[in-house]
Amino acid sequence: MNTSSLPRIAVIATGGTIAGQASDASKTAGYKAGVVGVDKLLDAVPALASVAEIHAEQIASIDSKDMSLALWSTLAARINPLLKQDDIDGVVVTHGTDTLEETAFLLHLTVKSAKPVVLTAAMRPSTALFADGLLNLLNAVTVAASQDSINKGVLVAFSNRIHSARDVTKTSTYAVDAFQSLEIGVLGFVQDGRVEFQRNVTRPHTTSSEFSIPDAWPMVEIVASYAGVSCVAVDALVQAGVKGIVVAGTGNGSMHSGITQALADAVKQGVAVVRSSRVGSGHVMRNGAASDDALGTISAGGLNPYKARVLLLLALAAKTAQNLQHVFDTY
Question: What span, in angstroms and rounded, lies between the C-alpha atoms of 147 and 127?
C-alpha cells in the first residue's frame, strides 16, 4: 500500500518523439525517435516530485509508426497488473504521436480498472528548441494523479487539453496542438496543476467493456475508396485470408462501384466489412436497405477507419461477429 501523501503513478515508456533526439536543436524533423530513456525524461521534469511518486518502466523504444499488435498485447499485459496493485494509483504511457489514438482506444476497451490511464506524447523531439514533451509529461502525470480522472476511461493529455481516447485524433503533421476531438470536443483541460473536466464519457469503456486482449489477433485491414479505385486490394485481402475489412469511404462512408461488389462478395465469404469515412469528422449513418442490409456491411458510426479497425479486431477475436452492428452502436 502507498503510505505517501502523494499519489503513486507508473510511467510506462514506449519511445516516440517525446524521447526523440536530434543533432541540431533548431530541427523538428529528421530526428531519431525513442532514444531518450524514461529515467532521463523524468529527471528533466523536477516538478514531478511535487505531483506524484513515480514508478518508471521502459517497455519499448520505438517510433510509433512501427507500433504492432504484439506490443499492444505487451502494453496491456503490463498495465492491467500494475493497476491491480494497491500502491499504484494510475498509469501514464509515453507514446509516439503517429499511432497514439489507436493505442489509446485499444487500451480504452481492454484496461480493466477505473484508475486513470493517461497517454501523452510530443510533436518536437526532446532536444528541440521549445520542446513540448516535458510539459505534456508533467500534465499527464497531473491528470493521472487527480481523483477527478477516476472512471473516465483512457485519456490523452496533450497541449493542456484532456481528450477521451475514443474521440481524439491527430490533425496536424507539425503543429504543437496536433490532437483534437473534432466532433464532440475535449473532456477538459490541465494547466499549472489544475485539472478540470467539463463533460463525462458516456459510452462503455474499461471496466464496463466486454473486450480484452486476445490470445491471437485476427487479420483486419483497411482499404480506401477514391476516384477510380479497383477491386484488386479487396480481392487480394480476401485471398490472403483476411477476417475483417474497414473501408475508409468517401463522405458518409460511401463506397465506389469499383469495390462495392468485391466487398459484398467478401461478406458472403464470411469477411466482416465495416464502413467508416476518410473525411475526419462526423459519423457514418447506417443506410439500411439502400446499402448495409443489401450488402451485409456495418456502419462504424463516429469511429474513424483506424479506431474502427481496433474495435473490429477486438470484436472478431471475441467472436461477436453476429452482433457487429450492436458492437459499433455501443462502443
Answer: 33
